[in-house]
Every structure is written in structure tokens, then in C-alpha cells.
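Aim 2, interim progress. The first record below pairs a target sequence with its C-alpha cells.
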Amino acid sequence: MQNMDLGDNELKPIKILGAGSFGRVFLCNYRHKYKVCVKRIIVKNPKKEMKIVMHEIYIMSQLRHPHIVHYVRSFVHAGTVNIVMEYAPNGTLHDLIRGSLPNGFTAAEVIHHFCDILMGLEYLHTRHVIHRDLKPANLLVDSNFCIKIGDFGISFINSPNVTHDFAGTILYMAPEIMRCEKFNNKCDIWSLGCLLYEICCGRNPFAHATSRDEVDRLIHSFTRRRLDCSAIRSKYGTMWANLCSSMLVTDVENRISLEKILHWDASLTLYYYRKYFAYSYQK
């Protein structure tokens, strides 16, 4: 692996972290100083794909926040686009959730993980960025066990001209996107509700569904058009259960806003702002 040429002398590959239809992700030494992650995207149809890839790079390059994966730079080499970014050595939220079973997270861990995601999402929305694919596999965990939002492949800048588009991961996808209806940044709130449920219960609320149609039928079966969160209530209390059900509301207008989440409960608000004012933006 050390002898593999990524097309940049400052990058020395160590190992492959993952692979997918897009290409591969490498762990590399950067400038002989520290480790970085390199997402190598194989561009098969430049005319169609380059615009999408460059859009992802543009969004990442405009973001700088403790709970957003840090973008370093990008370059083109031998038919590939390579995105150099921060390396998170403790895997993903998916790994943390699996590792917490069968007992699950403590109450202190629940509020810690949730507020990490909430802080990153609040920053994105203030920058008018809709992520659209929030899920455990896209939430990376750094050396201090802080969660950082990554993978902006289908994100976009919120615009009144963009209203309909089917994209994302079915189990975390808001009903309005699933039905190709008009949507806004509240689609991320739905995904956040799915994440909170999974953090508390160890599984996605629609985990037993195997298709888009099955997920849609489950959503239609909601009592009062919102998810039953009694499993959360029995373990973590009414506050978390009611918050989760307020995010997983099928009607966009009645779904809770991010601003109201920040002030949902005094304990949550206090914890959030203590972390907020302890931010360090220096790398």
C-alpha cells in the first residue's frame, strides 16, 4: 500500500478504509505529519458526474465547524477526483451504537451524542445547507469521541428553485422526499428524529421494513401522524420520547423546528449551550 501512487507526493497511503460504487476511501499520512482520509471518486461519465462531485467539494470547502468533518483539499488524478479530509479514528455512530448493545447508551451518552449532531446540523442550516442523508454511517467519530457530520454527496444549498428530488437513504428519508413532494430543511429534522430513536433504542424505527413501499406504509400507520416513542419513554424518560415523536411528524408544517429543539427542555438547552460556548475553531 505504501508504494501505491495517489497522484500526490504529500499523501502516503496506509490502508483502504472502505469501498463503494463511487470508488475507495484511503487512510493516508499527509506531509509526514498527520493522518487524513482520502475519498477517491472514479469519474466514469465526466459530463454528468463532475458537476455533482464539484458541488460536494464546494459545499465541504465552505464549512468549518467542530462537528463537521474538516475539508483539507482536493485534486484530480488519472480519471479520479480525490477529496482529502479529516480522519476520524473511532469509526462512525453506527459503530458506537452496535458497540453499546445489548445494554445501550447511558443517559449522559445520549445527550452527548445528540447534541453533537444537533450542533453540526444547526450550523449547516444557518449556512442554508440541507444535508439530506443524515444516518449513522455518515456521522464520524473522532479521537475524542465527538461526532462529526460527513458525506455531503447529495447535500445542496437551500433555494426556492429546488423543491422536488428523490435522494437519500430510505430508512432515514423524510416522507415528503420519499413522495417527491416539495421539501425544505425540515427533512433533516425527520432524519435527526430517526437518529435519536436509534441512539436510544439501538435500531432504526423502520428497521424491519425492506422496501420504500413498506416504509411508506409504516409512516401512514402512525397514530396522530407521528411515531410512537414509548420504547424511549420507558428507558430515558418523557422528555426524550416527546422530542423524538415531535421530530417524526409526517406533516412538515407540524414537525418541530430546529430552533424549538434547542429550547425543548432546560436540561437539553443548558447542556447544548455549555458545549456551544466551549467551541474551538482552531485546528
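The second target in this work package is listed in the same format:
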Amino acid sequence: SKPNVWQGERIFCGQILTSTQDILFSEYIGGNNLLLSYGNFFGYNFEDAIVLNKKIVYSQLFTSLHFKVYEIIFNSINKFSFEISTINLPKKSFYSKRNLDFFGIIKEGSKVLNNDILVSKVLITNINISLLPLYNLIYILFGKEIKNVKDKSISISFGNSGRVVKTELFSYSSKIKSYLGYYLKCRVYICKQRLLSVGDKLCGRYGNKGIIAYILSSNDLPYTNTGIIPDIISDSLGIPS
């Protein structure tokens, strides 16, 4: 963002102090101006389909950022069963835990791929040894309680890879914990940069829209006598739609 005022200026109520790159002369700018050509291009732009110049993808005029939020809660069911976060996960490779910190939570700024662990979550259940004679014998011999450990870690699903921009931890007191049912909540924000691709929809200023059916380089597109190459090739049948 850029400032619209300077130091020492007297400001008034309702005055705009800053503006982003989408605001020009106090007006919001939606989209970019492209050079459009009407014509049939080997049937690829039939009806509302459009052909796009690849330089638009390289210039990142329509590059967008998509955010996805993951929330993980840790329950404390009773004194025999509770959930914790730890990096010592059973039967997990070092590669899947490479971006975790000491507490088993993903680090900010890490790039996560498919099946990478965001938050390690382990359910520990203390077995009541008074009900099982075999466990009671092990407790007498070794002096240790038998615990059942179950891995319930949260991993990245397919197609949602990106970069971790922020992690948040929320802890609750005993009174709020009894109302919510959990004592700790972890929230992870993942950002993914997405370029234009086949299947995306573009819309004009007056509502005429089209689906990108083919992306070609500038060398394969038609040009005028002066060497002007269009950015978009659309069919005249797509104007009413």
C-alpha cells in the first residue's frame, strides 16, 4: 500500500489515508486491460471458449493467492485418555517430519507438499491394569504402565500444497475446556500461488465471460501487418453468452 497523505498534513473524518495497487484516483480497478481479437482459431474458441496468449501467464497479471486454514484440536477425554503433540511419532519417516519443530508443529515459512505432516497428534490411552491380569504382571515386574498410542496426525491432502504463512495456538482454562470439550487448538494458514491454466474463467467488464480452452505462445498466434499479437482470441458467438 502507498500513503495518500504526508507528514504534518491535517486530515479530516472520512479522508482516505492509504491506497493499494488496485485503487487509482480513489476508484477501484478490477482486472487488467487486454488486447482482444475476434475470429475462429481452428475451433479451439468455439462459442464461449477462448484462446489465451502465454505471455499473460508469464507476466502474472491474473496470478492469485489461495488460502486454506487447518484447525486441529487436542482433547482431554478423561484421566485415562488424552491427546498431545510431539515430534516422536511412531512409524513415521524423517522426511515427513522435516518441517516440524520440537513440539511437533509445522514451522512458519515451510513449504509443504502432499502427505506432509502439519501437526503431530498422538492419542495416549492408559490401560486400566486392574482389569487385565497380564498387564498387572508386567507392571509388577517392570514398574511401568502399559499405554496404547495411536497416531492421529494431520497431513496435507492431495492438491493443497503450498507455504505455511502463519501458525496460531489457543489454550483454554479448565472452565472453558469443560464447555468446549478440548484444551488446546492449533490453527495453520497455508498459502498457494495459482497461475492461469486451462479451465479457468475470464470475465469482461460488461459480464461477457469465457473459459480458457487453449494457451499458446506468441509465435503460434496470428498477428497483424504491423506485428501486433492479440492477448485473447474469442469467437463472435461468445459475445451474447
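Helices lie at 54-59, 133-142, 174-180. This observation will shape the mutagenesis plan for the next reporting period.
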